[in-house]
Amino acid sequence: QSSLRRSLSSLKFRIANNVADVTTPVQYSDTAVYWHIHKAGGTSMKRYYSCLDMVLSSHVGITEGHEHDKYLQVWTNKDGYRYVNVDTTKEIGILRAKSLKLAERHLANVVFVTYPALTTHIFQQQFKGRFFTMFRHPIERTVSEFYYRQVANWEPVAGVFNPNLAQQTIEEWLRD
Known about the structure:
This protein is of the alpha/beta class. The protein folds into 2 domains: 3-133, no CATH class; 138-175, no CATH class. Helix content is 34%, strand content 13%. It has a 6-stranded mixed beta sheet, with helices on one face. A hairpin with a 5-residue loop joins strand 3 and strand 4 (82-84). It is globular and about 55 Å long. This is Sulfotransferase.
């Protein structure tokens, strides 16, 4: 087991100290953290914030050779969108973001995460994460995933794209 997963026992402490209460006023030192739940609008949120010229931290941050950068920095992709050179959607990227002091440096306007509990390690009492997300009805989300996986040949994650699903009904897929 990884060191981050073992430390989930201290999650209550980290939430109390490293996560901002959304009912309190926003502080300059807070960082917006979007919990990206698959097929619940996260990709649209990334595009929205990019169009507002905000700097994002997501899996895109380590593309185009930036996974080997020694220092935390903002870079611009070919579409003009700006990213911090860390991947806050994976455990190893969360460790890297913590060691490079992502929260203290204030380079990201919005940090996109898939593991909110692990992400609390990035933040501190004086540099809190302010979490938010978008939920989707679970049945609608599942139906969307079924049809998405039939066509998503651009999806880099192993096992997402499955053209064989087009030969099944959604009922058959749910039974499997």
